[in-house]
Design a protein that fits this description.
The complex is a heterodimer of chains A (about 350) and B (about 525). Chain A is mostly helical and about 350 residues long. Chain A has 13 helices and 2 strands; from the N terminus they run βαααααααααααααβ. Chain B is of the alpha/beta class and about 525 residues long. Chain B has 3 domains: about 230 residues, 3-Layer(aba) Sandwich (Rossmann fold), CATH 3.40.50; about 200 residues, 3-Layer(aba) Sandwich (Rossmann fold); about 80 residues, no CATH class. In chain B, helix 7 packs parallel to helix 19 and helix 18 runs antiparallel to helix 19. Chain B is globular. The chains are: A mainly alpha (about 350), B alpha/beta (about 525). Chains A and B meet through helix 8 and helix 9 of A and helix 11, helix 12 and strand 18 of B. Chain B: This is ABC transporter. Chain B: InterPro entries: AAA+_ATPase (IPR003593), ABC_carbohydrate_import_ATPase (IPR050107), ABC_transporter-like_ATP-bd (IPR003439), ABC_transporter-like_CS (IPR017871), P-loop_NTPase (IPR027417). Chain B: Pfam families: ABC_tran (PF00005).
């Protein structure tokens, strides 16, 4: 019979192969799915993942999707490194977007492009406050951050709904649940002519570099890693776990807030009920797929960005629902978690022993 | 006469190591036979082979002259082989009787009265009294061991294997155990006694087989061999077996604890109660005690992992009770915890990273930036000075053997030139060669004016290097005496909870007096003397 055996040491090879294997399995399962739905499997797969990227405009579109995912993911890398299981990047993203939106609406008449900085900072602050609530609950009342951050996601979502259906609704908007359009002058500048790719991607790039440097060269980064790998060693060395928990959650909240602010003050240009397409959740997959490394997260967020584009393309070209995106993301996480089992364990065939 | 058990040319190989290499062992009827060896010498493997847990690759076992193939522990028990493991397998919430009934076959367990009678007989015969209705959670470690022993004896074994039975006992409790074992042997039961404490082996055993690196290197009569010779056989020739003991020069107070009372981390862990002491510069203060008597709590209180009132712990005149470990390190404190992997070192981090864990203040971090070059140099120097055997400084901590990792951790703390060093079990599970090196390092540090506090179960070690001694029992601290003014017997009594200052002649009255104060432990002593 087959038996699962603990390996004496974790397999490093498998740790790196697991994401590739998961991607392969996702593609295989996707092909099967397309076949069952009556589409040509390989062509549909090609259409889903690469059909959307054929010109400079669509590369820009990919960048637009990658930006918020990557910003959230980089923050989550810090949290997960420290064993702080923040599932709330989505809520922090929305809180950031909401605060940025309020700042943008409050300053509609201010006539300088630099007001964008205020809007972005407001978004960052919003995300930090949202993550700070979870940090406070964890450090003062030992509340499990997984539960608090998930619940705060719903609170943030409903606050946004309240805002756009109530106080933030555009008075001239024919009663649509949307805010007024922001001042065009205040939007993040487009950095690639002919696309919607905006300055947010530069912020994301800076964030990636900062986190790489933090983890590799600073004592703070080392403390975060130690806390995650071995909490009692961190206590023994006097790395305050409460302080570190605050730091990683605030950092993640700030980055997710920036992501949210970049969305509303960039491609969307106003507050609507649907400002996030689950970027905060997609970022969780990205961090696991990228092996909790900032550079890995860059590659993984491009892949996840493709699933967003693919959802839209297949809706148009294959007549399949846009929830294909979530389906592929779900399969990816599912296969990844399954493959990750084999980092620590291996399968062995053990011949059945017949009692003599 | 046919020996009871003969082990012939047993070989057992594990990936990467030959645990037993053509081992021969012969146990006569009614003999107390010692199996000696350092950690990793192959004692446990041999014992597991005899008890049927592991099958040998080669060689054979002869039981009463007949070849046998022991298929498993159940088969071993059927043959008449009993075993008491180092770690007990008792249910805390059940009574002594219930724990014993659980280990019996169903048809025997039904007859409670008969089992009770057997328990009573056994208690009388071997001096192992136990109230069968007491819950195991209220028993001391020595009494728990007695339950395990009785469980094995109910099976009427002809060969009883004891795996390091004294590692959890006070000297007085050991005496009680030895008295029982001698009676057992006189009744014809052979005993295989596994230990690395040579004095005990000399006191108890008639024959000793010494294992080193999986091979039998000698078989001798411990009663006629002196301890140093046995130690030399165990570790191989040319290895020093003792640190050169020398007295320290006591300086001014370095660290002091004032009426410290703290709870343990869980309801099962003993805290400390009203503990006061001062450790001076240039001395080693040895705190003896059986693990589980507040040592863990004491270490955390000193290291800063558990906070207290500010003035409860002081460095010089400054209260440090509210400072965290990193802040205390800045004041010159260094700590060696009892757990190496998962506290003293992060298992899957490299030695370089593990050096940074506590040594950041050695100029290895500047303005929050890790000085990678300096850090690597410091780590290399540490490994060289303390002879840490490793594939390189980028090896994971988990890849080091216990002794090597301990050398690394001690070295990391010692190299920081601390003003105060607190070390728990500094040589636990370390081979003799490394242990000597570690003790030398501690003595050198002391000579440089550091105050060293050692919490240990190993009395031999404490008497070898301490300048002053005390003990912890039930979270309370015994009196502190200079080493030359106390004795193993007295420290043993402290470890058992008897802190009265009486000469050994009046010991029985002291125990009677202590019985009034403490309910469970002195009972131990009474039994021990019975």
């Amino acid at each position: 019979m087959l038996r699962l055996e603990r390996q004496p040491q974790d397999s490093r090879l498998m740790a790196w192969c697991s994401p590739l294997l998961a991607i392969a399995l996702t593609l295989a399962a996707g092909a099967l799915l397309f076949a069952v739905l009556g589409h040509k499997p390989l062509e549909s797969l090609y259409e889903f993942f690469l059909g959307g990227v054929k010109d400079i405009y669509s590369v820009g579109e990919l960048g637009v999707k990658v930006t918020p995912i990557l910003l959230c993911a980089v923050g989550l890398v810090l949290c997960y490194r420290a064993n702080v299981w923040n599932i709330g990047a989505e809520g922090q993203f929305i809180a950031g977007a909401l605060c940025a939106g309020m700042a943008a609406l409050a300053g509609l008449d201010i006539d300088t492009p630099w007001y964008a900085v205020v809007i972005m900072l407001a978004g960052m602050l919003g995300g930090m406050i949202w993550a700070g609530i979870a940090a406070w609950l964890k450090t003062h009342f030992a509340c499990n951050e997984i539960l608090t951050t998930i619940m705060l996601n719903y609170v943030a979502y409903n606050l946004l709904q309240y805002g756009v259906h109530g106080p933030l609704k555009d008075p001239q908007g024919f009663n649509f649940p949307e805010s007024a359009m922001f001042n065009d002058n205040h939007l993040l500048p487009v950095i690639l002519e002919g696309t919607r790719l905006h300055g947010g991607i530069l912020i994301a790039a800076v964030a990636v570099i900062a986190v790489v440097l933090l983890l590799r060269y600073t004592h703070l980064g080392f403390k975060i890693t130690v806390l995650g790998r071995d909490a009692s060693a961190a206590t023994f060395a006097g790395f305050g776990s409460k302080q570190l928990t605050w730091i990683v959650l605030l950092a993640c909240g700030g980055l997710a807030g920036l992501a949210g602010a970049g969305e509303v003050d960039g491609p969307i240009g106003q507050l609507t009920p649907y400002i996030s397409s689950g970027y905060g959740y997609a970022a969780i997959i990205v961090v696991f797929l990228g092996r909790q490394q900032p550079v890995g997260a860059v590659l993984a967020s491009i892949l996840l960005g493709l699933t967003y584009l693919g959802g839209e393309t297949s809706q148009i070209k294959l007549g399949l629902p846009v929830s294909l995106t979530e389906l592929f993301q779900g399969m990816l996480l599912f296969f990844l978690l399954a493959c990750d089992l084999f980092i620590g364990y291996r399968l062995r065939w053990i011949p059945r022993v017949h009692p003599a | 006469m046919t020996p009871l058990l003969e082990v012939r040319h047993i070989t057992k190989e594990y990936p990467g190591c030959r645990a037993n290499d053509r081992v021969n062992l012969c146990i006569d009827m009614g003999e107390i036979h010692a199996l000696l060896g350092e950690n990793g010498a192959g004692k446990s493997t041999l014992m597991k082979i005899i008890y049927g847990v592991v099958q040998p690759d080669e060689g054979e076992l002869l039981w009463r002259g007949m070849p046998v193939n022991i298929k498993g522990p159940a088969h071993a028990r059927q043959l008449g082989i009993g075993m008491v493991f180092q770690h007990f397998s008792l249910f805390d919430t059940l009574s002594v009787l219930e724990n014993i009934l659980l280990s019996l076959p169903a048809h025997e367990a039904r007859d409670r009265l008969r089992v009770l009678r057997q328990l009573d007989d056994m208690g009388k015969r071997y001096g192992m009294h136990l109230d069968p209705h007491r819950p195991v959670s209220t028993l001391s470690t020595g009494e728990r061991q007695r339950v395990e022993l009785i469980r094995a004896l109910l099976n009427e074994p002809q060969l009883l294997i004891l795996d390091e039975p004294t590692s959890v006992l006070t000297p007085q409790e050991c005496e009680g155990l030895f008295a029982s074992l001698r009676k057992l042997a006189a009744d014809g039961c052979s005993i295989l006694f596994i230990s690395h404490k040579l004095q005990e082996v000399k006191d108890l055993c008639q024959r000793a087989t010494i294992l080193r690196g999986g091979c039998v290197v000698d078989e001798l009569d411990p009663r006629e061999t002196d301890i140093d010779t046995m130690a030399a056989r165990m570790v191989g020739s040319g290895t020093a077996t003792h640190a050169t003991t020398r007295p320290g020069v006591q300086g001014e107070a370095a660290i002091s604890v004032h009426h410290l009372t703290l709870p343990g981390f869980s309801s099962h862990e003993v805290g400390v109660r009203d503990v006061s002491f001062t450790a001076y510069k240039g001395e080693i203060l040895g705190i003896a005690g059986v693990a589980g008597n507040g040592q863990a709590c004491m270490l955390r209180a000193l290291s800063g992992e558990q906070l207290s009132q500010s003035d409860d712990v002081r460095i010089g005149a400054r209260g440090i009770g509210r400072l965290n470990p990193a802040q205390r390190r800045k004041l010159g404190m260094a700590v060696v915890p009892e757990d190496r992997l998962g506290r003293g070192a992060v298992p899957d981090m490299t030695l370089v990273e593990n050096a940074l864990l506590t040594a950041a203040d050695q100029g290895l971090v500047k303005k929050g930036v890790i000085q990678h070059g300096a850090l690597r140099d410091w780590t290399s120097q540490l490994c060289k000075l303390f002879k840490v055997k490793t594939a390189g400084i980028d090896a994971q901590a988990r890849s080091l053997s216990g002794g090597n990792l301990q050398k690394f951790i001690i070295g990391r703390e010692v190299l920081q030139q601390p003003a105060v060093l607190v070390a728990s079990h500094p040589t636990w599970g370390v081979d003799i060669g490394s242990a000597v090196a570690i003790r030398e390092a501690l003595l050198t540090l002391r000579d440089q004016g550091c105050a060293v506090i050692i919490l240990s179960e190993d009395l031999d070690e404490l008497f070898e290097i301490s300048d002053r001694m005390t003990a912890l029992c039930h979270g309370q601290l015994a009196p502190i005496k200079a080493r030359q003014d106390t004795s193993v017997e007295e420290v043993g009594r402290w470890m058992g909870g008897d802190f009265s200052d009486t000469p050994p002649a009046a010991e029985s009255s002291a125990i009677a007096a202590a019985t009034a104060a403490h309910s469970d432990l002195p009972q131990e002593n009474r039994h021990a003397q019975a």
